[in-house]
Amino acid sequence: MSINAQVRRNLGTLELDINLEVKSGQRVAIIGPNGAGKTTLLRILCGLIPIDRGCVEIQGKIVDSPDDRIFVPAEARNLGYCPQDHTLFNNLRVSSNVMFGLRAHGIDRTSAAERANQILKQLQIEDLSGVSPSSLSVGQSQRVALARALAVGESTLLLDEPTASLDKDVRPMVQQAINDHAAKFGTTVLIVTHDRAEAALLADYVIEIGQ
Amino acid sequence: MALISVSLFLLPLAGLLWRAPWSKFGKYVFDSDSVDALRISLQTSLLSTLLSIVFGVPLAWVLARVEFRGRSVVRALCTLSMVLPPVVGGVALLYALGRRGLVGQWLDKWFDIQLPFTTTAVVIAQTFVAMPFMVVTVEAAIRALDRRYEETARTLGASQWRVFWLITMPAVGPSLVAGAVLSWARALGEFGATITFAGNFPGTTQTLPLSVYQALEVNPEKAIVLALLLVALSFAVLVGLRDRWLSGVISARGRSAS
């Protein structure tokens, strides 16, 4: 995965100039102050913000290059994105939230339900599978959002503060689950975090971006 | 002030009730003309509500989400019939779809289809005046949606179509119901465009409002009874739906806020 891009549009005063190269299967943590563009970086990779100049490449494939008129839309980028604000779908139950991406990728209901259940178990929230997201605590919805991203994020995982709103006592378990997932699938992982200890735990190396 | 406005709505209703020939109520309501008019009214208004949903929702989505030149002109065009006198709409429909109309002449020549003065014409006239209520309501709801949910759904691999059905539609559901009720109410009350484009033929195009109008000239007592029937019908639907639809709107707001 590599990104070498400039973005000016849609960001108000923020201008972003990024150069980042992540080898396949590597785990990288991104640390930086608020407003440095960490979330923007993930949204660019997801295909939610098009770049103005440069090139974005994921899994050896160019997904955004204005000069070559290439732009692969978000739904075709095949990665697992866990947004900072969770954005769980409140009209669907927890299990259906986790199944959502699998179903969108054409996996049949039974296999998708099985896989979703596995991941929920791994994150120790399988008892919530029939619940509506609107009744979850912040920490619980964080874990559901992570589960939803893990379900489709076997090759690439983009995690925006994935443990920020977790209780201290479940945090190590969730971090372990992320590591296990990455080890099992050889996943390329990009984690935005505030916590240096967590960065050291979850990533092979840390990149600091400034204002 | 509020009392004055309530009495503005209450007085005409009281006037109807005061003059209502209660002893002949059943006779007029179950008279075959009235039953036909009621049946036609219900059938056509429900059908035009359905058409307003099928065609109005995609239009609302396009107006809310697709940026193109002349969007405000298209929006104005599609909601024009809200402010247009219905008779004008009827005349316009006649010159578009009538036997000598812009499109109507070809329908007649090639397919042997004559729309005016048929029940289909009633549905077209009603849809013409009712659909804007659907479009305006649903467009506002789609604009007010928190787009992050749809964005997340897309990153999970969902096509635009899938996002629309599984994420957007459930979120605008309450507004869709509100729009449907408004459209239906407008269609049920439709008079001007219907009488101009579809005529006033008992059994085919005479809806309840048209039969009230006709009865007023020959039998005012019957007109009052039919008018009360319309009032009761509309009132029942508004009261019946109000709570569910209001609570729906409130919970939708809570949802997007959380």
Describe this structure as you would to a colleague.
The complex is a heterodimer of chains A (211) and B (258). Chain A is α/β, with parallel strands linked by helices and 211 residues long. Chain A has a domain at 86-152. Chain A contains six helices and ten strands. Chain A has a five-stranded antiparallel β-sheet with strand order 2-1-4-5-6, with helices on one face. A five-stranded parallel β-sheet of chain A has the order 7-8-9-3-10, with helices on both faces. Chain B is mostly helical and 258 residues long. Chain B contains twelve helices and no strands. In chain B, helix 1 packs antiparallel against helix 12 (220-257), helix 3 crosses helix 11 and helix 4 (71-83) crosses helix 7 (119-144). The longest helix of chain B is centred in the C-terminal third of the chain and has 38 residues, at 220-257. Mean pLDDT of chain B is 86; it is low at 248-258. The A-B interface holds A 46-48, 73-79, 81, 83, 85, 87, 89-92, 100-101, 104-105, 134, 148, 152 and B 148-149, 151-160, 162, 166-167, 170-171, 254-255, 258.
SSE blueprint:
The complex is a heterodimer of chains A (211) and B (258).
Chain A: E1 2-7, E2 16-21, E3 27-31, H1 38-46, E4 53-58, E5 61-65, E6 70-71, E7 80-82, H2 94-104, H3 109-122, H4 138-152, E8 156-160, H5 171-185, E9 188-192, H6 196-202, E10 205-208
Parallel strand pairs in A: 3-9, 3-10, 7-8, 8-9
Antiparallel strand pairs in A: 1-2, 1-4, 4-5, 5-6
Chain B: H1 2-19, H2 25-29, H3 32-65, H4 71-83, H5 86-97, H6 104-111, H7 119-144, H8 147-155, H9 160-189, H10 192-197, H11 208-218, H12 220-257
Helix pairs in contact in B: 1-12, 3-7, 3-9, 3-11, 4-7, 7-9, 8-9, 9-12, 11-12
Label this structure with key terms.
heterodimer, A: alpha/beta, 5-stranded antiparallel β-sheet, 5-stranded parallel β-sheet, 6 helices, 34% helix, B: 258 residues, mainly alpha, MetI-like fold, disordered C terminus
